[in-house]
Structure formats: C-alpha cells, structure tokens
UniProtKB/TrEMBL annotation:
Protein name: HelD family protein
Residue ranges, annotated region (Disordered): 1-24
Natural source organism: Sphaerisporangium corydalis
UniProt keyword annotation of Nucleotide-binding present: yes
Pfam families in the cross-refs: UvrD_C_2
Source domain of life: Bacteria
Gene3D superfamilies: P-loop containing nucleotide triphosphate hydrolases
Length: 729
C-alpha cells in the first residue's frame, strides 16, 4: 500500500520541470514500480516460516523483508543472515533455535503448520535424524508440475543453503545428479548474491546461461518471485549481438568448431586477410605509374603488427605506411625529390582517394567483420587449409556463401566472438559509407533485369550483411548509451546489447554442455572470475561438451576453483531412479546416482509396440490428469513421431515451440528436454536414443530422470538389456 502510494505520488508530479527533475522523477518512478512488481510477485506464500529462539521473540521469515511505519521488522528476508538458521539449524547444531515452524498458506490464510523441534532435551533419536521440515518438503515435492519452475524458499535444504550462500568470489562448481536442485539452487543463489552484494552486482548485472530457450522460459518466473530483476537470462546462441542463430551443425561440425584449436584457426584466418601480393602492384594515376612492391607491403604489415591493435584498427597504420611510400614515389615521378613534410602529407591525402589506390589497399588489408571472416573461411577450402584445418575438418565445415540469413549456428557464436576480439571495431564512418554503398548496389541490382540479376542481388545482400548494418545499429545505440541518453535501459538490457560487457557474476547451468570455445567466450565476460557453474558430467550430451570440470576450468582459474556436491534427488522417485542408475553404469562405471527422497509405489514399465500409430494410442491413454506428460524421442524420429502424436492426441505439441510448456503432452528430443521435468515421461525407442550419438548412454540417463512420478518405455525392436528392470506391460 505504502509503495503504491509513493509511486502514485511520483507519477502525479506530471511531465514538467527541468531535465534533472524529470530524470530523478523517472528513476524514482522506476524504483517504486519495480518494488511494487516484486511485492505482487511474492504475494503468494509471502511468509512461510517462523523461528523460535531461546530468550528472544520469534522471527518470521518471508520472501522479502517488511517493516511497519515505525520501522519495526515484521518479516525477515530469507536471504538475510538472521534467516540462515531456518535452513541450517539441526538438532545436533541448533544455532540457538528451539523450534522451526513451516507455514503453509493459501492467499493470506495459514492452512497448515509443520514443526521441527530442535530443543535437544525434548527430542527422540528419530527426531534428530529428520530432514529439515520433512513434511513441508514432501508436500512441495508431491505437487503436480505446472510447466514452470517454482521457487523453494520455504524448503531449501542445508546442503543447498551452503551453495546458495557461498562466497561471491572465485569459481564455485556445483556438481550434482539429476533432480538434486542444481537449477533451482543456482537461481536462489542469484537472488541471494544480488541481495547481499547489491551495489557491486546491480551495476554490472548477473548473467545466467541456460541450455535452450524452452529451459529459460521454464525458469524465468522463479526470479521475480525471488525479488530479482537485474538478471539476464541467455543461451550461448544469443550471445553475439546482431546475429540470430537459426541453423544447426552436424555433430562433426559442432565438435570441430567447439575445440580450442579454433583459437589458432581464427587467428590464422585473420592473418590470411593480411597477405602480401605475389607480384608488385602497378597503380596507374594520370600519366604515370606507381609500383607497390612486396618489400613495402611487408614493412607496412610489420608496422601494423607491431602496433598490437586488432586487424581493423591496425589498418590505419598499414595504410599510412603504404601511402607514405607511394607519396615519396609520386614526388620523385613529379621530379620534386625534396618535398617538405607538409607537401608529402597533401600528396598522401590525394593518393588516399584515388580509386586504384583504394582498390589495392582493400585487397591487401581489407576491413573485415567477424561475419565476413567466417563466411569466407567456410566457403573456401584454400582458406581453411591455410588456417590449419585438415581435409576431414574442412569437409565438416565447408559451406557455400549463404544466400539468405539462415545460416548461423550455436557453435558459430563463440567463433564470431573470438574473431571480433582479433578484428576489432570498424570505424563507424567507414561502416556507414559501406552500408550506403551496399544499398545503392542493391537498388541497382533491383533495377537491372538481366540474366545475372540474381547473383548481383545476392552480392548486394551479402555486402549489406557483411558490412554489418546490424553492427551500425549497435554502434549507434552503444554510443547513445555512453552519452547517457539511454537512462531507461536496465542493466540487463544494456549488457545484452554489448558484446564486451563485463558482468558482476555469471551462473552457468547445464554447464557440462558448453564447448571449450564457449567457455573461452564466457570467461572474457567475467574478468573477475566470479562464477557459479552447475552441471552434471554424467549428463553430457553434446559431443563438444565436457567430462571433467578440471579440464574446463584449469586453463582459466588454475587450481583456484571449489566444488560442492549435491547428493539428494528431489525429483525422481526411488523406483525410477533404480532404472536410471543401471544406465548410469553404462555412462561411466565410477559414477554414482543421487539418493531419491520419495517413493511412489509405481514401478516403471516397458511395452513393445507395433509403430507410431500404437505409440500415439498409448500416449493418449497415459495423459496425466492435470499433470504434464512428455514423450522423449530419438532425434532422427522426432518429426515422424511428433506428427503421429500431434495428429491424434488433442492438445499435444511437438518440439520446443513458444507455447510448449503449457501443453498437457509434449514431444521432445533429449536435448530439448534437458533441465526440464514432467509428471509423466514416456521414452520412445530407447535403443535408438542409445545408438544415435556417442553420448547415447548419457542421453538415455537424462531422458529417464525427467519424471516426478511415472515412467514408461515404448519400443518396436528389442528392449535394451540395460532397461530390463522395467516391468513388462
Ligand atoms: N529444497 C527443495 N524444496 C522443494 N523442492 C525442491 C528442493 N530442491 C529441489 N527441489 C525440486 O526438485 C526438482 C529438481 O530440481 P532442479 O531442476 O533444480 O534439479 P537439477 O539438479 O537442475 O536437475 P537436472 O540435472 O536433472 O536438470 C525441482 O522441481 C525443484 O523445485
């Protein structure tokens, strides 16, 4: 109420006043509106706990802190240090707590109470061994899934709380099996860190990296309910401003592009654009000829290299040297050997605008955008070979110069970023001129109706894209921001548009999937190395992903990273986990499945089916009342099985489309289902999932661990032996 009044008061001041008044008013309005949004978001279950402490009045714990008009604390934010015993106190180490009470509320009414007595004198042995708020936890875990992740502030467990409140500095790795709460804990950690280190983090923002868009949609509502808005959720694919990923790499291409060898390859591809001419270049100007020989070019190139600037920014050095040499030649040709410096400068400027000189310079040291560099590299075996790629790698990467825009893949993004580092910025004036030129070409091509119109159009489009119209857009927006014109953008929005943004903290979820090149890109965005990395090396599906945290982190953090392990599975019931644990042995003999906390009494089952028609029938029968069902299918069968199911099961959706999370039945591949959970899971053709990737066993393990209740396996061929624990049905 008070916040709403404050907001209304600020808005009622109207639109007048000085510029400063206006911007102050806008920022107050923004602040109150944000607070109001937070208050609305936490309305549900606002207060969920009470701590009784020896000799003190009780503390009430809630989703955020509240005081009354006299500044008396009514509710303590769950992230505040005094709330910590709510999550950590045990009968053995009670932290001054005599009783912990979990409150279940509906709207503003208390509908249930669950007490843990921590007062040692009043406890039995059995009491001492209990979980933190067992009844409240089990009630939360039994709830039907809605398609969106919920926050767990009321039932955070002690091992999770240690991760959430771990120190901001350095790299923290959270390794844990499926369902151990890695994602939900990472989100609570983001909220905790922003609360505890507000000043440092709100300015630079927190970046959360997830595996795909469906996953980001699945988790995005958790953060506002935790009271946080300064967080940017992103996938690796979205991290190069101006580039939209629409294409998919083959496994071979993704493996090559993800490997750290590409650092060298990209560097050589840039050097390839600084080649010396094989023959001297003769430049005819007016009645005389100037000659640009290899020695001059080599000297110019060495100077540019010594400047230590990236390619596009070093071009001025190269150009200046070449123009100087040409100007001296021209002076000689004009019979004026002893020119003053100033006259030489004039001559140099004249030469700069000569078309023949421009052409020569563009050949020797062209402006190159990252996009153009990669397109040119993939389209030429000669260039790929110069850059150090062998024949098989060239086969994997080869791609003609694309005609339309649909060609960038996720694995290209870290390479574009790498190239951008080595190429540097193109002068904004040059870009603008190039874009204008490209537009003229495009218009000319449109006018021309001759036979090769198509190729001209393609060329012009290419120039448009390659000269980076999008880069110009970004350059201007960025400049505006540096001038301070863009006060309304949030930290997250500013960070998203700026490739070189350095974040205050980065959280990576499903981190096992990232390639070495993606790690390199991320590390550039976090020079302080303040990171939380959560994942499970047993679930790695990507061929460019990792099987060891040390391998990923040692190059960037030396030995200075710490690891916490989560050991309890809150999602998958014991019955289903037994099957998954058999598959885990195939992934790696030393790997250990997490301990499940629930039993459902429903055994997993397997059924032989005749084909897609029967699969669709079974899916129809398995629909969970008010719950959600997923059918996990092999990639190679996704289209066919998706069609069979959506055409006969009402409400079924195939693929990770925008509305997918609301659908009662969803058909997904393992990659698409990663990180998500459902009440019921049907795995179709497990044998094919096992066989279709070198990481097939990990994929099947991921598929089997998505369910909170029911699991069925449907197969046309033989059931893989590893699933023999499933009951025939
Ligand atoms: N302390 C808790 N209280 C209530 N629910 C919890 C708790 N911890 C985890 N959960 C629930 O358990 C489920 C699994 O959590 P989460 O998705 O974060 O696991 P994960 O480790 O990321 O799994 P995966 O590796 O399979 O993606 C979620 O529904 C989450 O809300």
């Amino acid at each position: 109420m008070r916040t709403r009044e404050q907001l209304n008061g600020v808005l009622a001041q109207g639109g007048g006043g000085t510029h400063q008044n206006r911007s102050e008013r806008d920022s107050f309005a923004g602040m109150y509106a944000e607070r109001l949004a937070r208050l609305w978001a936490v309305e549900n279950g606002l207060c969920f706990g009470r701590l009784d402490l020896a000799g003190e009045s009780p503390h009430y714990i809630g989703r955020l802190g509240l005081s009354d008009d006299d500044q008396t604390r009514l509710l303590i934010d769950w992230r505040a240090p005094v709330a910590q015993p709510f999550y950590r106190a045990t009968p053995a180490v009670p932290m001054g707590v005599t009783r912990r009470r979990h409150l279940q509320t509906k709207g503003r009414q208390v509908v249930g109470v669950d007490d843990d007595l921590l007062d040692l004198d009043r406890l039995t042995e059995a009491d001492r061994a209990t979980l933190n708020g067992e009844a409240a936890l089990l009630a939360a875990l039994d709830a039907k899934r809605t398609g969106r992740m919920r926050d767990i502030v009321a039932t955070i467990q002690a091992e999770q709380d240690r991760v959430i409140r771990s120190d901001l500095n350095g790299v923290l790795v959270v390794q844990g099996g499926p369902g151990t709460g890695k994602t939900v804990v990472a989100l609570h950690r983001a909220a905790y860190l922003l609360y505890t280190h507000r000043d440092r983090l709100a300015r630079r923002g927190v970046l959360i990296v997830g595996p795909n868009l469906t996953f980001l949609r699945y988790i995005e509502q958790v953060l506002p309910s935790l009271g946080e808005t300064d967080v940017l959720l992103s996938t690796v694919a979205e991290m190069y401003p101006g580039v939209t990923v629409t294409a998919r790499d083959t496994a071979e291409a993704a493996a090559v592009k993800g490997s750290l060898r590409m650092v060298d390859v990209v560097a050589r591809a840039v050097r390839d654009r600084q080649r010396l001419p094989r023959q001297p270049i003769d430049i005819k100007i007016g009645g005389y000829t100037l000659r640009l020989d290899q020695r001059t070019c080599e000297a110019a190139r060495n100077r540019a290299a010594r400047s230590n600037r990236p390619h596009n920014e070093a071009r001025v050095v190269f150009v200046r040297h070449v123009l100087g040499a040409l100007a001296r030649q021209a002076a000689k040709a004009l019979g004026r050997g002893m020119l003053e410096e100033a006259d030489l400068d004039d001559l140099r400027e004249d030469l700069r605008t000569e078309p023949a000189v421009k052409t020569a310079l563009n050949r020797l040291w062209p402006y190159v955008t990252p996009q153009r560099l990669l397109i040119g590299l993939y389209a030429s075996r000669e260039r790929m070979s110069y850059a150090g790629l062998n024949a098989a790698e060239q086969d994997a990467l080869y791609r003609e110069v694309p005609r339309g825009g649909d060609h960038w893949t996720e694995a290209d993004v870290p390479l574009l970023d790498e190239a951008a580092e080595l190429l540097g910025e193109i002068d904004a004036g040059v870009l603008r001129a190039a874009a204008l030129h490209a537009e003229e070409e495009l218009a000319a091509a449109r006018r021309a109706e001759e036979a090769d119109r198509d190729s001209e159009l393609t060329y012009a489009r290419e120039v448009l894209e390659l000269t980076g119209m999008s880069d110009i857009m970004d350059a201007e927006r960025l400049a505006a921001r540096h001038r301070g014109d863009d006060v309304h953008l949030t930290t997250a929005e500013r960070a998203a548009a700026d490739r070189t943004w350095a974040y205050g903290h980065i959280i990576v979820d499903e981190a096992q999937e990232l390639s070495a090149m993606a790690w390199r890109m991320l590390m550039r965005k976090i020079p302080t190395r303040s990171m939380t990395i959560v994942g499970d090396i047993a679930q790695t599906g990507s061929v460019a992903g990792t099987a060891s945290w040390g391998q990923v982190l040692d190059p960037y953090a030396g030995g200075r990273w710490r690891e916490e392990t989560l050991t309890v599975n809150y999602r998958t019931p014991v019955e289903l986990m037994a099957v998954a644990a058999d598959v885990l042995k195939l992934v790696g003999p030393g790997l250990k499945a997490p301990e499940s906390v629930r039993e459902t009494g429903e055994p997993p089952w397997a059924r032989r089916i005749s084909g897609p028609g029967e699969l669709a029938r079974v899916v129809g029968e398995e629909i969970v009342q008010d719950g959600r069902l997923v059918v996990i299918v092999p990639v190679s069968r996704a289209a066919e099985l998706g069609r069979a199911i959506t055409s006969s099961v009402p409400g079924a959706v195939a693929g990770p489309t925008a509305g997918a999370l609301e659908a009662p039945v969803l058909v997904l591949t393992v990659t698409e289902a990663k990180g998500l959970e459902f009440d019921g899971v049907l795995v179709a053709e497990p044998g094919e999932i096992l066989a279709e990737s070198p990481r097939g066993a990990s994929d099947l393990y991921v598929a089997l661990t998505r369910a909170t209740r029911r699991l069925g396996v449907l197969h046309t061929g033989d059931l893989p032996a590893v699933l023999s624990r499933c009951e025939n049905s």
